[in-house]
Specification:
Length: 157
């Protein structure tokens, strides 16, 4: 298994992924906070429908889009929600545990960020099935750049 990434390095990878999003997405990201947490809490997993048995067996999440919860279905009619924060959480430990190979880890971090970001734009899980089925849906060279940056930063230590 590869050495785990520091939170700082993991955060830099997520930030680089966010920076590569198309310019036309940027105005829609002003109300989005991206956080990195070690792993989802049992409460989060239960809230999302995982059973105690699934949790005990090691089921987890790689990321979560956590939209602002309004008190009623009609609250958005009375409140301007455009400035209210939504949260995207990337869970570091489940990704590192499931993808010990650096290349696979970087790819899965990117897929997770994009997957959760797609929820911010209104895509459902079924909308994302084709994206998830693709081994590398990007093929744009960023993965190689990230690997090179990671290798250089590890050599500098």
């Amino acid at each position: 298994m590869s050495k785990r990434l520091s939170y700082r390095t993991f955060g830099r990878i997520v930030r680089r992924i966010m920076e590569t999003l198309p310019e036309e997405f940027q105005p829609y990201l002003d109300n989005l906070v991206v956080d990195i947490e070690p792993r989802p809490t049992r409460r989060v997993l239960r809230h999302l429908g995982l059973t105690d048995e699934e949790i005990a067996a090691g089921e987890s999440l790689y990321g979560l889009f956590d939209p602002l919860q309004l008190p009623t279905n009609w609250s958005a009619d009375a409140i301007d929600t455009s400035a209210m924060l939504h949260r995207l959480v990337i869970y570091k430990q489940p990704l590192e545990e499931d993808f010990p190979d650096r290349r696979e880890l970087l790819l899965e971090i990117r897929k997770t960020v994009i997957h959760e970001l797609a929820h911010h734009f209104g895509y459902s899980e079924s909308d994302l099935d084709r994206f998830e089925a693709e081994p590398d849906p990007f093929r744009d060279g960023l993965l190689e750049e990230l690997l090179q940056e990671l290798s250089q930063s590890e050599q500098e230590r």
